[in-house]
Amino acid sequence: MTPAVYQKCIHPACGGTADLRDTHFACPKCGGLLDVAYDWNRLPVPKALKHFESKWANRTNPLDFSGVWRFRELLPFAADEHVVTIGEGQTLCQRTDAVAKFVGLNAGGLFLQYEGMNPSGSFKDNGMCAAFTHARITGASRAACASTGNTSASLAAYCAATQLMRAVIFIGSGKISYGKLSQALEHGALTLQIHGDFDDALRRVREVSAKLGIYLVNSVNPFRLEGQKTIMFRVLEAMNWSVPDWVVVSGGNLGNVSAFAKAFSELKHLGLIDRAPRLAVVNAAGACTLYELCEKRGLRWRNGAFDRAAVDGYYAELSARGAKADTLGSAIEINQPVNLPKALRALSCFGGVARAVPDTEMLDAKAQVGAGGLGCEPASAASVAGVKRLVAEGVIDKDARVVCVLTGHLLKDPDETVAYHTADKATFDAKLGSRGVTSVSFANRAVPVPNDLDAIVRAIQSHA
Ligand code: F0G
Asked: What is the CATH number of the domain that holds 236?
């Protein structure tokens, strides 16, 4: 009899499976991506989502305190004694009318799911605690990732806080913000800065992990995505278990959109929701593989039989042009997303769309999110810039209820924020101009004032 929990190839025609403990994270039959699969008939599942609210009464139990593990009946791959938590997932879903106005939605229409409140400052902790739990089941002693910065910060934090594994981190040269690099260094991770970009680093870390038997925590690891499903459970909870019309997220390696889609598929299958939201993924214009393939070239999932030659052809084109991913949203500076097939499946199941936004729109949206009271990093704000476009196009109705996931904290990348607000305009425009876009709209420049009482008073009054 198949076990109640195992790993299963995402391609329906393949049918490959792997044991729960397997750490290759590739289908043994076809090499494709794997899902964590459950035989729900043999697992205890609550009758209604309201069940999870009672967990709040039990916050002295670390498993009930965690915003990931209090939903553990919906990611039931580990016994409680294996579960790893450092208090992740205490995040906020906030109605933000000022930002709703900016994107063209009616008041009450926009909610920001603020994942910057996680222990390491990004959504990655949702997935990292799940990967660590799986790693503990398998007895791994070292873990590795390639990263644009947040996965590595999260891995380093979990290694340091739990002392369960040692961290090996691969980053591209010059492609990581200081906030994130400082976390990897401070938490004591072995940090390898290789010559190349994220796509190069990911290829290498997969080779090295296989060769040395190091546990891989990039989002090709399906257990990571089990943890990231809970971001959507918390969104539903914040909306009193009602389902929004749209969920919008920035796209890099496309793990989040894949996890969100799995969350909604399973909730529907279990009869815990009666409808699902539509999904939108927003790329940076300088790293827009999903947008290019889906929206411009018509690539579709086709129940797993998607046109692989079209994907390979696009990658070959990029490399023939010497085109590397290039955006100020460094977290999503990725041209070859490993979860592309899962993202195609997600878009096809949930009426999904992809868009690409230039850096200026991303940074303006970020400044508006900040002016509304929540601070996020540039890549996170692609979601908000994407909503603005989709509302203008009429794809999202003005009276829709929309959730944007803010994936990382403002302080992850303060350099870009300070540059936006205070660098002299000509310098900043020149920097953006090299990317084919110019000018920023919401700069809040520092005001130079002499050290003189009257001058200070005049400066304040003239800005009243
Ligand atoms: N936003 C932030 C802040 C991120 O760090 C990432 C990915 C994404 C969005 C994209 O999420 O990959 O699920 O589509 N950062 C990875 C890293 C790649 O290495 O930290 P995705």
From this structure: 3.40.50.1100
Q: Is the CB of 151 under 6 A from ligand 1?
A: yes
The pLDDT tens digits of the residues spanning 95-150 come to 999 999 999 999 999 999 999 999 999 999 999 999 999 999 999 999 999 999 99
Task: Provide CB contacts within 8 A for 249, sequence distance 6+.
Answer: 256, 257, 260, 279, 280, 281, 282, 383, 404, 405, 407
Residues 6+ apart with CB under 8 A from 226: 36, 75, 77, 127, 130, 259
**Separation CA 393–CA 103 (nearest Å):** 12
- Report d(CA 334, CA 2) in Å as an integer: 37
Residue 284 domain boundaries: 92-120+224-415
Rounded CA separation 238/235 (Å): 5
Q: Using the mean position of ligand 1's atoms as its centre, give its distance from the Cα of residue 332 in Å.
A: 6
Q: What is the pTM of this model?
A: 0.96
Shared domain for 4 and 104, answered yes or no, is no
Task: Look at residue 437 and tell me whether its pLDDT is greater than 80.
Answer: no
148 lines ligand 1 (CB under 6 A): yes
In sequence order, what are the beta bridge partners of 409? 376
Q: What DSSP state is assigned to residue 408?
A: B
| Block residue for tokens 């400052």 | 121
